[in-house]
Amino acid sequence: MSLITVCCEAPVGVDVEPSSRRDEVASAAEVALHRNEHPSSPDEMLRLWVRKEALLKAHGTGLATDPRSVHLDTSGHILEGPAGAIVDLTLGPDWCAAVAVLGPTPEVVVSY
C-alpha cells in the first residue's frame, strides 16, 4: 500500500506498515524506543513505530534522526522531539498507519 500526503501550511509525513510486520517491528524495540516508552504488545509497538516514522519524515530527516530521541505517550502526543501533531489512520486490520504535521498545530483535520 502507498499513501500520499499533502499539506499546504506545514511539513507533513506519513508511514504505513502491514500488520504482519508487528513481530518484526517489536524485535527492533532497542533501536526505536525512548527510555520511557514501554509498549505492552507487538500491536502497540507497531503503532508507536508508524507514529514516530511519520513524525520524523515530516521533520525531513526520517530515520537519520534516532527514533529513541522521540518520546510519545500511548495516544501519540509528542512528549519529546519535534513539535507537531500525529493522527492515526484507520485502514483496516491489515495496515497500521499515521500522518504527522509539524509546527504549532492546535487542530489537525485529516481527510482520507
Automatic annotation (TrEMBL):
Keywords: Transferase
Transferase as UniProt keyword: yes
Gene3D superfamilies, alphabetized: 4'-phosphopantetheinyl transferase domain
Segments forming domain 4'-phosphopantetheinyl transferase: 11-74
A Pfam match: ACPS
InterPro entries: 4-PPantetheinyl_Trfase_dom, 4-PPantetheinyl_Trfase_dom_sf
Top-rank lineage group of the source organism: Bacteria
Single GO term (MF): transferase activity
Protein name: 4'-phosphopantetheinyl transferase superfamily protein
Organism: Pseudoclavibacter albus
